[in-house]
Amino acid sequence: MLLGYNTNGFAHHDLLDAVRVLGEIGYQSVAVTIDHHALPPGRPWTGQQLTDLRRLLDSFGMQSVIETGARYLLDPWHKHQPTLMSPDPEGRRRRMDFYRHALRMAQELGSRCVSVWSGQLLDRASEQEAMDRLIHGLAELVEEARACEATVGLEPEPGMFIDTTDRYEAVLRRLDAPELGLTLDIGHLICQGETPPEAYIRRWASRLVNVHLDDMRPGRHEHLMFGEGEVSLGPVLAALAEAGYHGGIHVELSAHSAQAPQTAQAVYELLRPYWEKLGKLSSYPTSNQSSLNQAR
Fold first, then answer.
1. Of the candidates 2, 118, 211, 236, which lies 20 to 30 Å from 67 by C-alpha distance?
2. Residue 149: phi, psi to the nearest 5?
3. What are the φ/ψ torsions at residue 203 (nearest 5 degrees)?
4. Can you give the CATH number for the domain in which 107 is found?
5. Domain span including residue 79
6. What residues does 208 pair with on adjacent strands?
7. Cα separations (Å) of 68 from 85, 95, 140, 190, 282?
C-alpha cells in the first residue's frame, strides 16, 4: 500500500509545486486530478508539463493515478458536466474525448489507473435507458484502456447514477471486463450507509485499483479531516493490507486547499504510524522538516 494524496487538495498550487511538496513530505503516490492548471487537454504547454511531471515523480520514486473529477473543466457553468450520463450525444462525446486525454496522460506517466465516475442522470430516462447510456460509454472507454494497457477505476459517487458498490455491481453484470476496476472512497461508504467499510473492502478486494481516504458522516457528502467523521482508520487500513491491496491510498481533502501544505503534513504525521505498524513505510525524510515546520 502506498500513502498518497490527491492534487485536488492543492487547488491553489501549481501542479509541479504540489507534487514537489508531497514528495518532500514523504508521500509515496499522487492522484493527479486533471484540471485547468494540471495537464489540461488542448493547451500548448500541457506536453511540457507532462514531461516535467514525469521527471519529478521519478526523482521522488512516486507512483501515480489519474483522476478526472475536476468540477468545471469541461463546462464553466455546470459542475461536473457533461458526463457519460448526459442526454445529448455531443456531451457524452466531449466526456469521452476527455477520458481519451486522461488515458494518454496515464500512459505517459505510467500511472496505475484512470479514475472515473458515472455522472448524474439529469433527464427522465428510464433505468434501462440510463444504464444503456452508461454501459455504451464505459464499453468504449474499456476498449480504449485495453489498447493503452491501462485500467479504469469506476468510483461510486454520492448523488450520481452509480452511487454505491451495489450499483457498481449492476454495471459489472452488463460489462464484466478485467480493465474495469473499482475506485473505492472510504468516506463514501460511510455517507451511503455501506458499513462497516472493512466488509466492503473484503468484498471488493479483487477489483480495487484505487482508494480514496477521507473522513465522512452518514448521509452527508462532505470530505472531512480525520477525526471529524465516523471512519475508523485502524480497521480500514488493516483490512486493505489483509486484502493484499498494493496500490495508492490517496487522501482526498479538496476543501482544505487554502492550507494545503500544512494539511498534507499533518495528515502524513497522523497516518505515518499506521503505515509503520503495517510495515508499509520503510523510511521517513528529515531533510525538509525545518522548512515544513516553519510553514505551519
1. 236
2. 55, 45
3. -60, -40
4. 3.20.20.150
5. 2-295
6. 182
7. 15, 10, 16, 22, 31
